[in-house]
Known about the structure:
The structure holds 2 protein chains of 2 kinds. By secondary structure, chain A is of the alpha/beta class. Among the domains of chain A are: 128-166, no CATH class; 198-320, no CATH class. Chain A contains 11 helices and 8 strands. The interface between A and B is large, with 66 and 57 residues.
Amino acid sequence: MPDLAGQIRAAARELLAAGEVAAVLGFAPGPLPMTTRPFAARTPAEADRLTWNGFCVMNPANLLPEILAAVEPPRGPKDPPPEGPLPKVAVVATGCWSRNIVVQIQEGRVRRERLVILGIPSRGMIDRRKVLRRVGGREIRRVEEGAHELRVEGPGLHETIPRWEVVRDNCRTCVHPTPVVYDRLLAEPVERTGVDRYAQVAEIEAMTPEDRWAWFRREIAPCLRCYACRNVCPLCYCPTCFVDDSRPQWVGKSLDPADTALFHLLRAYHCAGRCTDCGACESACPMGIRLRLLTKKLEKDVLELFGTEAGLDPGAPLPLAAFRPDDPDEFLTAGPGGGAGPEGPPPREEEPA
Amino acid sequence: MEAVMTGTAPGQWEPRIVAFLCNWCSYAGADLAGVSRLAYPPSLRIVRVPCSGRVSAEMILDALKAGADGVLVSGCHPGDCHYLQGNLVARRRLSLLKRLLEFVGVEPGRVRLAWISASEGEQFAALAREVTEGVRALGPARRLAKTLPEVRHA
Ligand code: SF4
Ligand code: SF4
Ligand code: SF4
């Protein structure tokens, strides 16, 4: 296994010392075993605090626009932008994170020329809940990550766990582990084929409406509506989120199951065609809710209906801001004479004017 | 949304369907059905919107939350949109929403989309009948309806 932490530190030191970037966004160790936190190194000395391991589950793309703004020279709201290029920021990016950066470029959130992307072909991040379940909830004081195993230690606890068994669900079914955009690649590209990426979704689709409803109710019942899943997502940057709208109040402040259901449906729906299945929302959820099942379902449908996947091409229009005249009409209740309608313009992806 | 949902005779259940009709085609189609004295079930609560593309997922779910038994969204035929492409964007959005709702167990048939032009009064009446009967067969919608009272603003 290459020493990725060492390579990230070396690249960060070099970029910061040369003045090529104003900050390097990566991860620092967290306060507890199996945790990390996002960290932006701004000096070569700070670069030594950067780390890399299987517990880097947050999505650094989420912080990128903020950090890019923070490294710009200070100016008043009415001052013109400074002359010359703005300072750059380097960021570590696995496959899914790089696709989130592509979505941010598509949505005008970041500019490619201000980024130095340190690409990391991903081996999959670890789900700490799975580790805790494996050790029966006993206290873990130290975790050492090897190439294919985790050595877990605590009071009276010495266990070796095969790594792949505790990798997150999204990573286990990931088909784009290698970054799609990068400036430097810090390890050999990884290929993953033969994964059934929609097995979890298909299992639910096969159930009856009654069972699906029962599953959904059960799945979201523990939700606290803390909105950590929203705050951690790089797609959720609305200045006023629909959950905070008060007139009309789309989602009530109560814990009525209908309000919680609406929150989950709309949050997932807002990410349709944009979500890269990075899993940050699920990793952030304190209640272990499998939020990804909804976004994954949408990902599957976007691919089936419109033939696109999020974040693969910075030049492509976003699937829900575009259309094709021959999009499937699958659920029209075409009244008599309704249905296909007159011939539209030639089929091509168009962005509304 | 509650305002649109009132007006059911007590005791007996009649489907209540919120119909978002676009100003340029479907609303005019509904109007024509009325002017032509065509009989169709009184189950539709019509909300006039500028374009089917204006109808958001929030609006549809809000209707279900307020107790609607079904939601119909109707706009101009593809190619006829007053805003050229609003209905085509709506089609993409609503296909996904409909699939998502079914994924979590909302019965197929609760949320529907249809194209009705301004000259299609008869088609509108037929659609109203078809949608009403479909929803009647499903029975009252309980799954996303809110049971706790909403806090009202002054
Ligand atoms: S993070 Fe989990 S508990 Fe918090 S709002 Fe999201 S789903 Fe609910
Ligand atoms: S949940 Fe929707 S409205 Fe809220 S921040 Fe995310 S995208 Fe925006
Ligand atoms: S919805 Fe979840 S999985 Fe999708 S991009 Fe946002 S944080 Fe990642």
